[in-house]
TrEMBL record:
<keyword id="KW-0472">Membrane</keyword>
<feature type="transmembrane region" description="Helical">
    <location>
        <begin position="141"/>
        <end position="161"/>
    </location>
</feature>
<dbReference type="InterPro" id="IPR036259">
    <property type="entry name" value="MFS_trans_sf"/>
</dbReference>
<feature type="transmembrane region" description="Helical">
    <location>
        <begin position="371"/>
        <end position="391"/>
    </location>
</feature>
<keyword id="KW-0812">Transmembrane</keyword>
<feature type="transmembrane region" description="Helical">
    <location>
        <begin position="55"/>
        <end position="75"/>
    </location>
</feature>
<feature type="transmembrane region" description="Helical">
    <location>
        <begin position="213"/>
        <end position="236"/>
    </location>
</feature>
<feature type="transmembrane region" description="Helical">
    <location>
        <begin position="12"/>
        <end position="35"/>
    </location>
</feature>
<dbReference type="Pfam" id="PF06779">
    <property type="entry name" value="MFS_4"/>
</dbReference>
<dbReference type="InterPro" id="IPR010645">
    <property type="entry name" value="MFS_4"/>
</dbReference>
<feature type="transmembrane region" description="Helical">
    <location>
        <begin position="82"/>
        <end position="101"/>
    </location>
</feature>
<feature type="transmembrane region" description="Helical">
    <location>
        <begin position="173"/>
        <end position="192"/>
    </location>
</feature>
<feature type="transmembrane region" description="Helical">
    <location>
        <begin position="256"/>
        <end position="275"/>
    </location>
</feature>
<protein>
    <submittedName>
        <fullName>YbfB/YjiJ family MFS transporter</fullName>
    </submittedName>
</protein>
<feature type="transmembrane region" description="Helical">
    <location>
        <begin position="113"/>
        <end position="134"/>
    </location>
</feature>
<keyword id="KW-1133">Transmembrane helix</keyword>
<dbReference type="InterPro" id="IPR005829">
    <property type="entry name" value="Sugar_transporter_CS"/>
</dbReference>
């Protein structure tokens, strides 16, 4: 019996989206954000202090910036087919090596290299998939790739809490390392075989290799996104540690705060994709910033269980939405420069999120509290909301240019 073409196309689309989500799960959750629930245990094991933990996180974010800048250079689909497998191999190797090192300097170096791989993959995988979807008139499905981040956060929470009494010190990285290998192998193979033109073309047939990315429309979007990078990274790095300092041992939120973040992150890409399609990506982005701002502010205004729960729910349900909505708005403002635009945005995003842990360390070393550092995150998200008000709708902008 012959299979209906629509069923075949739907299955193909699903496999591509799942492959992209899997890569983000591996590099962004098992590679990067698993450090957040691990940090209190690594501090408890004596491998790190809270201040050293912030420093290690900063090295990882520096690597993420370098990776994003490399993706600005290697943004064409034919280049992605080479760099994506290399980056995934680097991710797997550095994660395995993290199981063997204890000195903070060695861990910092590995987290730097792991961050480079993360930055390359986080730019290139969604950008390649978006170009593939655009050619099939399925752009709205692009946000589903980010479901992998939420699923990965939930998985990382279970991996850390489920092995907390069995492992200690560097060995706590083993579950993430072993799981990354088969997932990375399959998903990488699936994406490098996508049928996407080697170079992106404009409607007139010219190649979109060069061209300005910054203008009066995109500059507010870039500056807004910078606020998002600084604003979200504080709760996403330090919320479990803050919970441990504010609540007694054995309280369900000590492990449960990260679980809450993970659970609400899973449906977030679907929710914000729908809201963007229903009300417009720009309107959805502004609401997204407002909710995220309130989440970061919650632990400052209401220390304790209520503030922690609100922060976990409000930030967890929005930060991935900020990424996918901003990427779609940027591509609408600058059609045919998708991978290059994505790389430039992630590079800027990583600069400001790298500043978050560094500023937190300076604050803690000066005698400040961890809860006080979250005020900086709220201010940054307020900045993001303000600048988002100056971003024009793509159709209005292009009408003005014609």
């Amino acid at each position: 019996m012959t299979e209906h073409p629509s069923a075949s196309h739907a299955r193909q689309l699903m496999s591509v989206v799942v492959a992209g989500a899997t890569l983000l799960l591996v590099v962004h959750a098992l590679g990067r954000f698993i450090y957040t629930p691990l940090l209190p245990y690594l501090v408890g094991d004596g491998q790190l202090t809270a201040s050293e933990g912030a420093s290690v996180a900063t090295w990882n974010y520096l690597g993420y910036l370098i990776g994003a800048l490399l993706a600005v250079r290697w943004y064409r689909p034919d280049q992605i087919r080479v760099t994506l497998p290399v980056a995934m191999l680097v991710h797997v190797l550095t994660t395995l090596l993290q199981t063997q090192v204890e000195p903070v300097s060695w861990l910092s170096g590995l987290r730097l290299i792991n961050g480079i791989a993360n930055g390359v993959v986080f730019v290139q995988a969604p950008a390649l998939i978006l170009e593939w979807l655009v050619r099939r008139n399925r752009t709205s499905a692009s946000g589903l790739v980010y479901v992998g981040v939420g699923v990965g956060l939930l998985l990382s929470s279970f991996l850390v809490s489920g092995t907390a009494d069995l492992l200690s010190g560097p060995a706590r990285w083993w579950p993430a390392a072993l799981l990354s290998i088969p997932l990375a192998a399959w998903a990488t193979w699936r994406l490098v075989n996508l049928e996407v033109p080697a170079r992106i073309q404009r409607d007139d047939g010219s190649f979109a290799d060069k061209g300005p990315l910054l203008d009066r429309a995109s500059i507010p979007l870039f500056l807004s996104y910078a606020g998002a990078g600084l604003g979200y990274i504080l709760p996403m790095t330090f919320l479990p540690l803050l919970t441990k300092t504010q609540l007694p041992a054995g309280h369900w939120l000590v492990d449960g705060s990260w679980l809450l973040v993970a659970v609400v992150t899973i449906p977030a890409p679907i929710l914000w994709s729908f809201l963007g399609a229903r009300f417009g990506d720009l309107a959805a982005l502004r609401v997204n910033y407002l909710i995220q701002f309130l989440g970061a502010l919650a632990v400052v205004l209401s220390p304790g269980p209520l503030g922690i729960v609100l922060c976990a729910l409000l930030v967890g349900s929005t930060f991935v939405g900020t990424v996918l909505l901003t990427q779609r708005i940027g591509r609408a403002l600058h059609p045919h420069q998708g991978p290059r635009l994505s790389a430039a945005m992630v590079a800027l995003y990583s600069v400001t999120q790298m500043a978050g842990p560094w500023l937190t360390r300076q604050w803690l070393d000066a005698g400040g509290t961890l809860a006080g550092a979250f005020t900086l995150g709220a201010v940054a998200l307020g900045w993001g909301l303000l600048l988002a008000l100056f971003v024009p709708r793509a159709e209005d902008w292009h009408a003005r240019q014609s």
